[in-house]
Amino acid sequence: MIDLSVDLPGLKLKNPVMPASGCFGFGREYSEFYNLRQLGGVIMKAATGEHRLGNDTPRVAETASGMLNAIGLQNPGVEKIIANEVPFLAKYDIPILANVAGSTVEEYVAIAERFNRSESVNALELNISCPNVKEGGIQFGTDPSMARDVTEKVKAASDLPVYVKLSPNVSDIVEMAKAVEQAGADGLSMINTLTGMQIDLSRRKPLLANQTGGLSGQAIKPIAIRMIYEVKQHVAIPIMGMGGILTAEDVLEFLLAGASTVAVGTANFQNPYVCPEIIEVLPNVLQKYGFDSVKAAIGKGHEA
Amino acid sequence: MIDLSVDLPGLKLKNPVMPASGCFGFGREYSEFYNLRQLGGVIMKAATGEHRLGNDTPRVAETASGMLNAIGLQNPGVEKIIANEVPFLAKYDIPILANVAGSTVEEYVAIAERFNRSESVNALELNISCPNVKEGGIQFGTDPSMARDVTEKVKAASDLPVYVKLSPNVSDIVEMAKAVEQAGADGLSMINTLTGMQIDLSRRKPLLANQTGGLSGQAIKPIAIRMIYEVKQHVAIPIMGMGGILTAEDVLEFLLAGASTVAVGTANFQNPYVCPEIIEVLPNVLQKYGFDSVKAAIGKGHEA
Amino acid sequence: MKKRVDMIVQSVREIALDTFEMTLQNAETANTAKPGQFLYLSVEGHTLRRPISIADADPESGTVTILFKTTGDGTKHLSMFCSGMNLDVIGPTGNGFYCDAGTVKTALLIGGGIGVPPLYYLGKELRKNGIGVITVLGFQSKEYVFYEEMFQEFGKAYVATNDGSYGYQGYVTDILDQVGHFDHYYSCGPISMLRAITSKLRTHSGSISLEERMGCGIGACFACVIPADNEGGYRKICTDGPVFAAGEVRL
Amino acid sequence: MKKRVDMIVQSVREIALDTFEMTLQNAETANTAKPGQFLYLSVEGHTLRRPISIADADPESGTVTILFKTTGDGTKHLSMFCSGMNLDVIGPTGNGFYCDAGTVKTALLIGGGIGVPPLYYLGKELRKNGIGVITVLGFQSKEYVFYEEMFQEFGKAYVATNDGSYGYQGYVTDILDQVGHFDHYYSCGPISMLRAITSKLRTHSGSISLEERMGCGIGACFACVIPADNEGGYRKICTDGPVFAAGEVRL
Ligand SMILES: Cc1cc2nc3c(=O)[nH]c(=O)nc-3n(C[C@H](O)[C@H](O)[C@H](O)COP(=O)(O)OP(=O)(O)OC[C@H]3O[C@@H](n4cnc5c(N)ncnc54)[C@H](O)[C@@H]3O)c2cc1C
Ligand SMILES: Cc1cc2nc3c(=O)[nH]c(=O)nc-3n(C[C@H](O)[C@H](O)[C@H](O)COP(=O)(O)OP(=O)(O)OC[C@H]3O[C@@H](n4cnc5c(N)ncnc54)[C@H](O)[C@@H]3O)c2cc1C
Ligand SMILES: Cc1cc2nc3c(=O)[nH]c(=O)nc-3n(C[C@H](O)[C@H](O)[C@H](O)COP(=O)(O)O)c2cc1C
Ligand SMILES: Cc1cc2nc3c(=O)[nH]c(=O)nc-3n(C[C@H](O)[C@H](O)[C@H](O)COP(=O)(O)O)c2cc1C
Ligand code: FES
Ligand code: FES
């Protein structure tokens, strides 16, 4: 028997595979394809303090082995998420992570406090890296002192374990990781999307209404692997890995790089069953490469 | 008649398409496939002060819509390049750009001086962004003050126009671009590769001997376009655009984003004829989208 | 439970310039598809699926027909599929066209370009329910015209081309005054056409089918929203649409 | 002028576990290919081409044969090609096996696994030139063995499998003492095997064929270098090789 379980601060996962924030809504739509109980956990779409309408359309574009998105954090706001969405997900008895996004430190803190008081949320994923909103988001993700500050204040305001989601759009990812570790983060989540653009040749302007969008999908996997590999050598807290995962082999690559658990984003759009399918074949893939558990594979791509 | 010509500091190009540095050697091999005279110009493989042997193998890996390379600046050194390679290229009567890479400011300056004294080199491409060498290279590309310093000193040491090749592995590409513009750069060349990694599941370690490598190819095009688009709004000097170009439509996308000329790298490996093929269809593509010259398309993706 | 299904390509043929008709075999889909719904097709080598409307469904033969224009790489790829090949599909997806046979006696179908296909299946179903059908179709030019005779089987069908190379010269809106009485209109086509129609037919009841770039195609990613005056302030085209009542969303 | 050529797939068949034989039609290539050279094949959806050795070439029928093992996505994709399909190829590329018919009267071929194919074409040419051929082939296990009888046509052929499920149990190096006299050896296979052989046959003259991950495949990118004691300090496998004199490069 291959043991798929992983224990992280605040999260006992029966397997390491979760859908990534923003690529799974609040689970309702995918629950029409399969029983969400199979998942290791679920990371909800970003919550902001108030209802947000997001950016104008077009909001997505296709790129070679990837896509750009500029949804702009559309969501009904933390109150409605707690009232309408969390109870639905709670039925499945899997760990629930709330993705928290704000424009100001105060907004982050307020959302964290609110989730802290809710029943069923097991951990926070602090989204300091959303490249698709005009104010807030990305600065927190590129400036180590701002990242440290927001992490500290959120930690102080909530008892829930905090996973800080790092942006790959930085010169020095290790510096960012260390900053949030020092600030008390319980774990890291990486990577968010890379800022990209596509130009519509006919209209002679950026295709996305927001001009730029976040690049996700298989195209970015080498960057995610590199960043996790580097960060793993410098921090002690666990890493949730993501960026271009499509197969169980990809999952193993992330584990070897140093991730303790993974999230699958864009691939859900290609194949709505991708998460359960990965979970199903993961034991075989681990075995094929000589591992008898997920835990045994974590960080094993680092030579002695 | 669609006019493909572009005039840049020191470079009168009959068309905007050149092979990118490191993906074309010194032209000999591709000259066995077609007459290099068709090219807009040619950018040579990086030159260092002395002969370099580069990294161990494996040096390349394939990724989704891209590849990683960690050649490590293998080259015979500036003297031999001037003695053995430049004369060969000079026969074709096309502008020659020398890609200059060093570990220290002094090495950059020495190479630039040497090329300055040579006959047939028309411009320098200052490679301050090579991610695949242990010392030097990348720090110049991520620290604006180091980039400014090396640009100034190279400018002072050489009369050749200097195009500074920027690294995409930075939090703020505009800051880097402004720094080298202020330092006197005649133009920018962007982007170099993004640092990535692939892990070999069987050997449980990074596939490349150098561990990390530079990600190139179609996968990175959205990042290149975004960076050029952003930089174009803040600098006045011309931009040589590159990153994932495969077709004439891609070339137009770079022109609209703000590039004045382009370089094609990885695509040469897929199709050795890619440069002349793009040059052949570029007039049709320009016409299809309503342009009667390359010049007319430059920067036209920026709304009024 | 929703499903991803495999559909077998039965035939592909070019029926007008750059316009292909593809027949797909899948009994379940053919049985459940409603006019206005779309298939969300996976095309190898492409990250995102392609939404294509159902142009016809025949429960008897177990086939579904789609029509598409080769505007980009994905549709070009699709046009090169051969019979016997497999297509990975999510669908039928989205809602269908609204029709209250009680109030609608005569329907007006207004299609523009590659917006025409879903109206064919709709017209067929309307006629089946005894509803009268008048059709107005607009195309760029003669080479792009398709399915005219098939709409004529439903009733009067007008065709306009932008350049006058076939039928009336002009836009579909130029013909609307000639069509006589109708109780409800159904329209699908470019957004500019839909804007012109909904404004011109302001006083009529109508349904419009919209397009937007999609991510998930099933309502989870918020890629395909359109502003609306409902409580949330928006509707999703992939699941709340693609068909909306005219006036329900802000074009 | 070098060229990129289109070759037409004539047949593909599995000749051993995960091992495929593909025949390709292209008269020019079939006429010019030398033993030891390789084809650099483009596989749709993959950035880099795949280097595969020429296992046979027949100027009369204008065909070239390649053999490959499905170790990854590219070769899996290749194995699914159907006859009639087109393959975009750079090649024949690289140098060929060295042979001085004046000094070489008997040749020893030593192949390991998927390193065996180029030796077949070589053996055929050697025999054509009246040179005696002894063969030693090593495979993982019985299911992977291929082409044994074809090598036996050249002369004595020994087969070893790592697990002893066929032929001798052990490595090709274990058999080398039994083969008798030879003037030159030719070897292709895993690097560990080549290391063992060149060290064991230190006193013999030999040629080895090497593998390395490639970028351009034509000598321009420096991806495929191997350290050597020549002036430059390295050789390129794609153009200076893939065949080297044993001792010319540092394994
Ligand atoms: C509900 C719905 C029904 C549709 N029905 C039809 C139909 O019956 N026949 C038909 O020919 N076309 C239809 N379209 C448009 C069709 O989806 C696009 O033409 C197609 O996706 C273009 O793909 P491509 O690869 O050729 O173009 P590319 O430009 O290469 O596509 C790039 C990306 O943009 C998306 N995209 C491009 N144009 C559109 C568009 N107009 N709408 C939505 N996404 C787009 C693609 O899906 C893809 O993700 C429909 C669109 C929607 C939303
Ligand atoms: C000169 C030469 C001759 C060869 N001849 C044969 C042959 O006749 N039959 C055969 O089965 N194999 C041969 N190989 C090995 C063959 O090239 C690889 O097995 C093949 O490229 C793997 O591709 P893939 O897509 O299946 O694997 P993947 O692992 O998906 O390939 C990923 C990348 O790594 C490269 N790669 C992986 N393994 C190798 C390797 N061993 N050597 C070089 N590049 C590799 C691929 O080309 C590709 O760029 C030869 C290699 C060389 C250099
Ligand atoms: C459509 C879309 C919406 C996203 N929304 C969010 C979000 O709300 N919060 C967040 O932290 N990340 C968001 N992401 C980023 C993903 O969670 C993930 O980090 C990224 O897409 C990389 O993973 P992938 O390549 O598997 O998609 C979004 C990504 C996509 C494609
Ligand atoms: C194999 C390889 C070698 C390269 N060597 C150099 C180099 O020596 N100097 C340099 O400035 N850039 C080098 N580059 C980067 C390219 O010039 C180019 O900036 C990058 O690959 C992006 O373009 P592409 O996607 O078209 O390949 C190299 C790229 C590759 C793939
Ligand atoms: S496409 Fe994802 S919500 Fe409509
Ligand atoms: S593969 Fe480029 S030099 Fe050999």
TrEMBL record, chains A, B:
- List the PROSITE patterns: DHODEHASE_1, DHODEHASE_2
Q: Which GO terms describe its cellular component?
A: cytoplasm
Q: Which GO terms describe its biological process?
A: 'de novo' pyrimidine nucleobase biosynthetic process; 'de novo' UMP biosynthetic process
- Note on cofactor: Binds 1 FMN per subunit.
Q: Which residues bind substrate?
A: K45, N69, A70, I71, G72, L73, N127, N192, T193
Q: Which GO terms describe its molecular function?
A: dihydroorotate dehydrogenase (NAD+) activity
Supply the EC number(s): 1.3.-.-
Tagged with keyword Cell wall biogenesis/degradation: no
Q: In which pathway does this enzyme or protein participate?
A: Pyrimidine metabolism; UMP biosynthesis via de novo pathway; orotate from (S)-dihydroorotate (NAD(+) route): step 1/1
| Co-factor requirement | FMN
Under InterPro entries, the record lists: Aldolase_TIM, DHO_dehydrogenase, DHOD_1B, Dihydroorotate_DH_1, Dihydroorotate_DH_1_2, Dihydroorotate_DH_cat, Dihydroorotate_DH_CS, Dihydroorotate_DH_I
Instruction: Name the positions where FMN binds.
Output: S21, K45, A46, N99, N127, K165, I191, G217, G243, G244, G265, T266
In this record, what's one Pfam family? DHO_dh
Q: Which UniProt keywords apply?
A: Cytoplasm, Flavoprotein, FMN, NAD, Oxidoreductase, Pyrimidine biosynthesis
The Dihydroorotate dehydrogenase catalytic domain extends over: 4-286
What reaction(s) does this enzyme catalyze? Answer: (S)-dihydroorotate + NAD(+) = orotate + NADH + H(+); (S)-dihydroorotate + A = orotate + AH2
Role: Catalyzes the conversion of dihydroorotate to orotate with NAD(+) as electron acceptor.
HAMAP family assigned = DHO_dh_type1 (MF_00224)
Family named by the database record = Belongs to the dihydroorotate dehydrogenase family. Type 1 subfamily.
Record note on quaternary structure: Heterotetramer of 2 PyrK and 2 PyrD type B subunits.
What name does this protein carry? Dihydroorotate dehydrogenase
| Organism of derivation | Lentibacillus halodurans
Automatic annotation (TrEMBL), chains C, D:
Residue ranges annotated for the FAD-binding FR-type domain, each copy included: 2-99
Cofactor requirement: [2Fe-2S] cluster; FAD
Q: Which PROSITE patterns match?
A: FAD_FR
Q: In which pathway does it act?
A: Pyrimidine metabolism; UMP biosynthesis via de novo pathway; orotate from (S)-dihydroorotate (NAD(+) route): step 1/1
Source organism superkingdom = Bacteria
**Keywords, comma-separated and alphabetical:** 2Fe-2S, Electron transport, FAD, Flavoprotein, Iron, Iron-sulfur, Metal-binding, Pyrimidine biosynthesis, Transport
Positions bound to [2Fe-2S] cluster: C216, C221, C224, C238
The record's free-text note on cofactor binding: Binds 1 [2Fe-2S] cluster per subunit. Binds 1 FAD per subunit.
Q: Which residues cross the membrane?
A: none
Q: Name one GO molecular function term.
A: oxidoreductase activity
The family this protein is said to belong to:
Belongs to the PyrK family.
The name under which this protein is listed is Dihydroorotate dehydrogenase B (NAD(+)), electron transfer subunit
Gene, per the UniProt record: pyrK
